């Protein structure tokens, strides 16, 4: 049975069912899974890029918020310092007022003292005048020499002594008062100068703190504005990402639908084939009966046209081995380059030009190149009403295209070493159901196939 025969058969079958409206446009449908997959990959990478940008924005926003918090705590610190400085200025102002009052009081005292000194000067002058009047001379010696008798002399000496010591006392007091006054004035004026310079430096500090606070407040405002625009940018990116997710989802649905369509084709084809086989068997039985009754039996016909040259010996039954060679890795846990990993298929290795064949009848879902699988073909099958998917990876080349119907044993390409592969081999996967990225439907091919 050749391929063309089956395509026409399945199309006829499908057309009679009428539930497959896209069949008439198989030529377009052939490339659609690949196109859709490519679109999906483009969207995925665009989305990844955008999500990367979203993460960048998030970290920028976080940095911004951290800065805002830092600035706020700096402003709080400056405000505390300002309060402290203002309190100190108030204190110094009070001290200055007090000192000024003290100076004023001191000036009053100085004034009183000066008056006293003036009074004493007057007293001394008067005393000197009194002595002059008594002795006709300001000279104490004249007073003493003018004594009439020794008794008078003694009296005069006593009087002169008294006057002299009194004068001396007054003069000493005067000197002491003057010195004290000068000292006090100097002290208070020094204190006032200190207070005023302290107050001046406090006021400078306050001014500095005020300007710092203004600057920080300005910076804070800028950061807030920056945050707002970052949030907007992030939201735009998020919307874009959401939109891409929607598209991705939609495409995934389309891909699933296309795969389901091909799986349904495979199912219809299986039903049709069974019907044909039954019809043929019935026809043969009728012929045989006729031959036995007529007894002059013509030689019975060979059942079917010769199959196209198989790439590997084709087994009877639904399945056949996809390639001849040595099994190098089985399905299951395995170590590759020192790392433990789950191997989702069976590896068959052989040297030279090794043909790869379809493991069962079906439709090619995908035939493309991927960085991991290299040249890879996906085929959907229907075996006793159950959908299976086979994967043929690392091929040197593929000779089938998407949407193409294949028969068990048909050559689909040649063994190779493309993609993530280390030496020529076929990586063959069998999925009970459809293929998915997590390979959740993968089963051990040896459950179905004798390699
Ligand atoms: Zn493998």
Descriptive key words:
Helix Hairpins; 4 helices; 15% strand; three-stranded antiparallel beta sheet; binds zinc ion; 2 domains; alpha+beta
Task: Describe this structure as you would to a colleague.
This protein is of the alpha+beta class and 451 residues long. It has two domains: 31-292, Helix Hairpins, CATH 1.10.287; 312-451, Glucose Permease (Domain IIA), CATH 2.70.70. The chain has four helices and 13 strands. Bound molecules: zinc ion (ZN). Residues 329, 343, 345, 347, 427 line the site of zinc ion.
How are the secondary structure elements laid out?
Layout: H1 3-17, H2 26-135, H3 140-145, H4 150-294, E1 326-329, E2 332-336, E3 339-343, E4 346-349, E5 355-357, E6 362-370, E7 374-383, E8 386-395, E9 397-398, E10 405-406, E11 411-414, E12 426-432, E13 442-443
Antiparallel strand pairs: 1-4, 2-3, 4-12, 5-11, 6-7, 6-10, 7-8, 8-12, 9-11, 12-13
This protein binds zinc ion.
Reported by name, the CATH topology of the largest domain is: Helix Hairpins
Order of helices and strands: HHHHEEEEEEEEEEEEE
Largest sheet: 8 strands, antiparallel
Net shape: rod-shaped
Bound molecules: zinc ion
Structural class category: alpha+beta
Number of E-state strands: 13
Ends apart, CA distance between termini:
24 Å
Please tally the helical runs, counting DSSP H or I stretches of 4 or more residues: 4
């Amino acid at each position: 049975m050749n391929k063309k025969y089956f395509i026409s058969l399945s199309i006829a079958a499908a057309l009679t069912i009428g539930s497959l409206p896209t069949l008439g446009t198989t030529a377009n449908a052939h490339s659609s899974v690949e196109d859709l997959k490519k679109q999906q990959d483009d969207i995925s990478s665009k989305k990844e890029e955008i999500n990367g940008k979203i993460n960048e924005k998030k970290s920028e926003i976080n940095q911004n918020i951290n800065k805002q918090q830092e600035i706020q705590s700096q402003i709080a610190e400056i405000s505390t310092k300002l309060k402290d400085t203002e309190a100190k200025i108030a204190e110094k102002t009070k001290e200055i007022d007090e000192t000024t009052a003290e100076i004023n009081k001191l000036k009053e005292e100085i004034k009183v003292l000066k008056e006293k000194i003036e009074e004493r000067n007057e007293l001394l002058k008067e005393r000197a005048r009194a002595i002059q009047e008594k002795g006709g001379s300001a000279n104490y010696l004249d007073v003493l020499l003018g004594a009439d008798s020794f008794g008078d002399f003694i009296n005069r000496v006593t009087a002169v002594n008294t006057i002299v010591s009194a004068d001396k006392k007054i003069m000493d007091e005067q000197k002491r008062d003057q010195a004290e006054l000068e000292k006090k004035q100097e002290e208070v004026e020094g204190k006032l100068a200190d207070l005023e310079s302290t107050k001046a430096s406090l006021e400078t500090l306050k001014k500095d703190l005020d300007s710092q606070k203004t600057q920080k407040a300005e910076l804070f405002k800028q950061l807030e504005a920056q945050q707002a625009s970052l949030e907007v940018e992030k939201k735009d990116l998020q919307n874009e990402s959401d939109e891409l997710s929607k598209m991705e989802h939609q495409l995934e649905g389309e891909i699933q639908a296309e795969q389901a369509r091909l799986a349904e084709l495979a199912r219809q084809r299986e039903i049709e084939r069974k019907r044909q086989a039954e019809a043929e068997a019935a026809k043969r039985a009728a012929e045989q009966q006729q031959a036995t009754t007529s007894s002059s039996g013509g030689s019975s016909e060979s059942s079917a046209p010769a199959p196209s040259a198989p790439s590997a010996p084709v087994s009877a039954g639904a399945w056949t081995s996809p390639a001849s060679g040595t099994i190098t890795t089985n399905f299951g846990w395995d170590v590759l380059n020192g790392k433990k990993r789950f191997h989702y298929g069976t590896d068959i290795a052989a040297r030279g030009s090794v043909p790869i064949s379809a493991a069962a009848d079906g439709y090619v879902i995908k035939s493309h190149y991927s960085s991991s699988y290299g040249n890879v073909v996906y085929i959907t099958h229907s075996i006793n009403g159950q959908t299976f998917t086979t994967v043929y990876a690392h091929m040197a080349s593929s000779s089938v295209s998407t949407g193409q119907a294949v028969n068990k044993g048909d050559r689909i390409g040649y063994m190779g070493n493309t993609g993530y592969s280390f030496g020529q081999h076929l990586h063959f996967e069998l999925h009970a159901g459809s293929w998915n990225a997590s390979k959740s439907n993968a089963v051990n091919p040896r459950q179905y196939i004798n390699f």
